[in-house]
């Protein structure tokens, strides 16, 4: 019985890694579609979000079943509860990747990102991709030293997010070189990518809790 329980716990971990890999793929596709632009790629990302949702639903059911049937305690309970929370967080990261792809699709064949904002968004997308890779690595290896890297990537995203506000409030926006739609897109896309980083931080903190057992104070990111 114990062996089956351990196999079930390992399956939870494997499914979390699979989810994170799908999210990384979605984020890479969405940001490529945004900067290209690429309609077909954007639509693949949007359609692919259903697979992430299904995995999250399966994981949630797995964790609830383990809690109900096995009544785990101590470390095992921490694994199950952390898995339940991680699945929800990673699913939200997938939603944010889908939102980016939806903006890219909505503006096709035009560029969603105007030239004045392109350097900022090239850095934003690069930093968000780094977070997506960090999350996969964290879930695969539970290397707590990677948590610091996630925080650094998120700090970079936060700084770049502030740059997007400077773009839309700059004289170039006021004198109509940026259209109202471009201002909305810059604002929303900056928010989506910044939130993606916030959720990456939430994953890092939960892995720290899983490995060390120490709760890490944080503010839960919004969807």
TrEMBL record:
Residues 18-103, 126-207 form the PhoU domain. It comes from the Bacteria. It is found in: Cytoplasm. Pfam families: PhoU. GO terms for biological process: intracellular phosphate ion homeostasis; negative regulation of phosphate metabolic process; phosphate ion transport. One of its GO terms (cellular component) is cytoplasm. Keywords: Cytoplasm, Phosphate transport, Transport. The keyword Transport applies. PANTHER family: PHOSPHATE-SPECIFIC TRANSPORT SYSTEM ACCESSORY PROTEIN PHOU (PTHR42930:SF3). Homodimer. Plays a role in the regulation of phosphate uptake. Belongs to the PhoU family. This is Phosphate-specific transport system accessory protein PhoU. It comes from Salana multivorans. The lineage of its organism: Bacteria, Bacillati, Actinomycetota, Actinomycetes, Micrococcales.
């Amino acid at each position: 019985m114990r062996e089956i329980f351990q196999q079930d716990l390992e399956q939870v971990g494997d499914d979390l890694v699979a989810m994170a890999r799908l999210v990384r793929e979605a984020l890479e596709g969405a940001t490529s579609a945004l900067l290209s632009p690429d309609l077909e790629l954007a639509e693949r990302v949007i359609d692919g979000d259903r697979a992430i949702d299904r995995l999250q639903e399966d994981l949630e059911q797995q964790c609830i079943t383990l809690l109900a049937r096995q009544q785990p305690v101590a470390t095992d309970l921490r694994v199950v509860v952390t898995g339940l929370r991680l699945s929800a967080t990673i699913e939200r990261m997938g939603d944010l990747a889908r939102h980016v792809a939806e903006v890219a699709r909505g503006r096709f064949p035009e560029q969603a990102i105007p030239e004045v904002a392109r350097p900022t968004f090239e850095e934003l997308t690069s930093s968000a991709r780094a977070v997506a890779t960090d999350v996969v690595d964290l879930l695969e290896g539970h290397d707590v030293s990677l948590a610091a890297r996630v925080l650094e990537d998120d700090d970079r995203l936060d700084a770049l997010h502030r740059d997007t506000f400077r773009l839309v409030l700059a004289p170039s926006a006021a004198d109509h070189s940026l259209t109202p739609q471009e201002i909305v897109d810059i604002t929303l896309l900056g928010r989506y990518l910044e939130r993606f980083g916030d959720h990456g931080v939430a994953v890092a903190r939960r892995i720290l809790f899983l490995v060390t057992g120490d709760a890490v104070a944080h503010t839960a990111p919004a969807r």
